[in-house]
Write a structure and sequence with these properties.
Largest sheet: 6 strands, parallel, barrel
Strand order of the largest sheet: 29-32-36-40-37-33
Distance between the termini: 74 Å
Structural class: mainly beta
Number of domains: 4
Oligomer: single chain
Number of strands: 60
Length: 698
């Protein structure tokens, strides 16, 4: 490798010389050589090492290297930086320098933002002005970029760009925001808070962090930027593709932009599987879902649909749609396709006006599926929008299946609690209706409270709790029908805003037959009158009564066995625990203080306990039968040498549990903790302190 000194000499036009000759050169030439060497070193690539990069020192550009990042700042590039951390020397003072990340195809760039403050919002500027519309942090390239958050980070861009920008293109990679140490915060603001810039779609994944994102200029809080359209109808941008798996997120869209999802003229494609989310849409936009549609004079439009999946253990603290936008679903003129499943919780979803709480926006149909163990605390439609279903003038197709809890689905004026919005009419050919299906599954049975919207002074009648909204009287309008299916066991409390609780103004109250035992449907009209129908309440089936136990015939007395010759015995040592070879285990009746057995009605029934060696057997004559103990009793039995418990009931049902395994399941539980062992025909269950431990049974 050539030395810097030799390189400088060659540049000066001299061949390398010996050390002796070098000493004889003039001082001026030596100084020139050293100066040139220094200049060359500044412009050359430096070797790899990990370091902090301070934003005050200049713009930073990052790309993927062979074994790390290539980082350029101030004209110097460091190759293969193994831990790229960007910081502010003084986070209380914003820098106007920027960060650009370019991940090449098949490459991954990992960057940490650590208490960085950047503000490049220069107000209203023309595009030809120097540095107009700068971006605080821009992520590009077809590779993948991971940004880790440490400390408090603030990124502010102007109205043309996102605070943290990642524009979705055909060859763009992914942007993932992480917070592995659970100490990171990000406050991002721009035309979009996080996502696409003006006339661009946005794509982002968030796995953690405390994040606040605010859009301006028609952009979403998180998602798409404001779309642009030319005279030929070509549309650029607006869509927001957002995935959230964790974190505490607060997102606010500008007018026409969703809190999370589409910007103005953009659809919102959102999947949330974890985290706690608060999302507020701007005027005409959804809280989570679509932005506002752009309408052409010929009646065509683009954007505003909300395609939303919420599942896993996600918690939506609040999803607030503004005028014309749903809480979760479509924006202005936006249809929705919403699925809520798993153990997801929606604490509040609400439209300010004309949109559904969950479903369609203004004139937007709501296609909503709620299943598994999902829970809806409140879904409130804006004026004339359904609680769950269609926005004003639109239908609601709603499917509810499994162990779903809906505490309140409230329709706006004239709209249904679950189903159609007000003023939804069938097509000219008579087609179009509200399709509603409520079913129990193996996961459980739905429990629903729904209320129809009240009537208006202008002649709009009240909406059904479940079914159709209403239309104005005397305007040659036709009410839309509702096709409602209820199957299995359900619990429904339906209060009408008018005369019909479950149904429509055409066929009136819908009657259901053949519902499963335990079903309870309560219907009330707007005046408080009970309008419950035949078949709405079905009693639980009576448990099968066991046949009385037949007395066993007395066995004839057996002749006494002749005395056996005494066997020699071996006296065990102190260390011996096993019985002698001649010992025989005998089953004997015992009494276990505090143990009792109940039948299906919870009444105590007769039982017996026997012990054979280290095995204790509990017997009862019943089909649906429960044995009741406490952990203190089990610990006492173990001290007395019992190792195995057996529970035997009718139908030849017998299950076994190890005492050690039972105690190990809840080792720290107090003695008074209840142990309940239940046989239901051929099925068996075991709970300890209310927690299911049936897997211990053999």
């Amino acid at each position: 490798m050539i030395s810097y000194r030799k390189l400088a000499m060659r540049v000066l036009g001299h061949s390398p010389v010996s050390a002796v000759k070098t000493v004889r050169r003039s001082t001026g030439k030596r100084a020139a050589a050293l100066a040139l060497t220094a200049a060359l070193v500044v412009g050359m690539t430096l070797p790899a090492f990990a370091q902090d990069w301070f934003i005050e020192n200049g713009d930073i550009t990052i790309s993927a290297g062979e074994s790390g990042n290539n980082v350029t700042q101030g004209g110097t590039t460091t190759e293969n930086d193994t831990d790229t951390v960007i910081k502010s020397k003084d986070s209380s003072t914003a820098s106007s320098n920027t960060v650009t990340i370019d991940a090449g195809e098949g490459k991954t760039v990992n960057v940490t933002l650590d208490n960085v403050t950047i503000n490049v919002d220069e107000g209203s500027k023309y595009g030809y002005e120097p540095d107009a519309y700068k971006t605080a942090v821009s992520v590009t390239g077809s590779g993948n970029t991971n940004i880790e958050l440490n400390g408090n980070n603030t990124l502010t861009s102007g109205s043309g760009h996102a605070g943290l920008e990642h524009n979705k293109t055909d060859d763009s990679g992914t942007l993932t925001i992480t917070d592995n140490d659970n100490d990171g915060k990000l406050d991002a603001k721009g035309g979009t808070g996080i996502g696409g810039g003006y006339a661009n779609d946005g794509q982002v994944t968030i796995t953690g962090g405390t994040i606040t994102a605010t859009g301006t200029n028609g952009g979403a809080g998180i998602g798409g930027g404001k779309a642009s359209a030319n005279a030929n109808g070509q549309v650029n941008g607006g869509d927001g593709d957002v995935t959230i798996t964790g974190g505490t997120i607060t997102a606010t869209g500008d007018s026409w932009g969703a809190g999370i999802g589409g910007g103005y003229g953009g659809d919102g494609n959102v999947e949330i599987t974890g985290g706690e989310i608060t999302a507020t849409g701007g005027y005409y936009a959804a809280g989570i879902g679509g932005g506002a549609a752009v309408n052409y004079p010929d009646g065509s439009r683009f954007g505003a649909d909300g395609n939303v999946i919420i599942k896993g253990d996600a918690i939506i603290k609040n999803a607030q749609g503004d005028y014309y936008g749903a809480g979760i679903g479509g924006g202005y003129y936006g249809d929705s396709d919403v699925e809520i499943s798993g153990s997801a919780v929606i604490e509040n979803a609400e439209s300010e006006r004309y949109g559904a709480g969950i479903g369609g926006g203004f004139l937007g149909n709501g296609n909503v599926t709620i299943k598994d163990n999902a829970k809806i605390d409140n879904a409130t439609g804006g004026e004339q929008g359904a609680g769950i279903g269609g926005g004003i003038g639109a239908f609601g197709d709603v499917t509810i299946e499994g162990n779903v809890t809906i505490k309140n689905a409230q329709g706006g004026t004239g709209a249904s609690g679950i189903g159609g919005g007000a003023q939804a009419e069938p097509d000219d050919n008579g087609t179009g209706s509200n399709q509603i299906s409520i079913k129990s599954t193996a996961a459980g049975s739905p429990n629903i409270t729904a209320k129809g919207g009240k009537a208006s002074d202008a002649g709009l009648s009240g909406g059904a709790a479940i079914g159709s909204g209403s239309v104005y009287e005397g305007h040659n309008q036709k009410n839309a029908k509702s096709d409602i299916i209820i199957e299995g066991k359900v619990t429904i409390n339906a209060t009408s805003g008018g005369d019909v609780a479950i149904g429509d103004n055409i066929d009136r109250e819908k009657v259901f037959n053949g519902l499963a035992g335990g079903t309870t449907i309560k219907r009330t009209d707007s005046n408080g009158k009970d309008v419950t129908q035949d078949g709405d309440v079905v009693a639980e089936p009576e448990p099968e009564k066991p046949e009385p136990e037949k007395p066993k015939p007395e066995e004839p007395e057996q002749p006494a066995e002749p005395e056996k010759t005494a066997q020699p015995t071996v006296t065990p040592t102190e260390a011996a625990e096993a019985p002698s070879a001649g010992s025989v285990e005998v089953e004997r009746p015992v009494t276990v203080e505090g143990l009792y057995v109940t039948n299906v009605l919870g009444k105590q029934i007769t039982h017996t306990c026997t012990q054979n060696g280290s095995t204790l057997t509990i017997r009862a004559n019943g089909i649906v039968t429960s044995a009741h103990l406490t952990l203190g009793m089990v610990r006492t039995l173990k001290a007395q040498g019992v190792k195995t418990l057996v529970f035997t009931t009718l139908l030849s049902r017998s299950t076994t549990v190890s005492v050690d395994a039972l105690l190990a399941a809840e080792p720290d539980a107090p003695d008074e903790t209840a142990v309940v062992w239940t046989h239901t025909g051929p099925r068996a269950a075991l709970t300890i302190g209310g927690a299911d431990h049936s897997d211990l049974l053999k």
